[in-house]
Amino acid sequence: MGQTFKTRRLVEFSDTDMAGIAHFSAFFRWMESAEHALLRSTGLSVFDIPAEVDLPDGASLSFPRVKASCDYRSPARCEDELDVAVTIGRLGAKSVTYKVRFSLDGKELAEGEVTSVCCVIQHGKPPASTPIPAEVADKLRPFVAS
C-alpha cells in the first residue's frame, strides 16, 4: 500500500449548522485543503505547477475538479479535531483521484473522493486536458494506494 498523508482539521463554528454539526459542504472544502497540504508536503503548489510542455503565452497548468463525492457515516461537531488521511486512488496519465478519510478518536466520520484533470488554462478558451508532468506524477506516485 502507498503512503498516507495525514493532517488534522478543527471543526470551526462557521463550518456548522444551527445544531453545531458540520455542514455537509464543509467536507468538500476540507478535502481540497487536505489535497493542497499533501501537495505542499511534496514541494508542489496549486499555483506553481512544473510544466514540461511549451505553454502558449499567458497559459498555465491547473487541475480543475471533474468529480467529487462524500459518504457520511457520523456527524462532526463544532470544536472536534478531525484526523484527515489522504491517499491517491488512481494516478492516470491526465487525472488524479484523491481519497480522503475523516475520523475522530479512531471512529470514521466520512470518506470522500475528488478527481482532478491536468489542464492547460488559457484566457478565453475552455480548459484543455494534457498529460500530468512527470515531475508532478513522480511526487504523487508514493501516495498511490495499491
TrEMBL record:
<dbReference type="GO" id="GO:0061522">
    <property type="term" value="F:1,4-dihydroxy-2-naphthoyl-CoA thioesterase activity"/>
</dbReference>
<dbReference type="InterPro" id="IPR029069">
    <property type="entry name" value="HotDog_dom_sf"/>
</dbReference>
<comment type="similarity">
    <text>Belongs to the 4-hydroxybenzoyl-CoA thioesterase family.</text>
</comment>
<protein>
    <submittedName>
        <fullName>1,4-dihydroxy-2-naphthoyl-CoA hydrolase</fullName>
        <ecNumber>3.1.2.28</ecNumber>
    </submittedName>
</protein>
<dbReference type="Pfam" id="PF13279">
    <property type="entry name" value="4HBT_2"/>
</dbReference>
<keyword id="KW-0378">Hydrolase</keyword>
<dbReference type="GO" id="GO:0047617">
    <property type="term" value="F:fatty acyl-CoA hydrolase activity"/>
</dbReference>
<dbReference type="InterPro" id="IPR050563">
    <property type="entry name" value="4-hydroxybenzoyl-CoA_TE"/>
</dbReference>
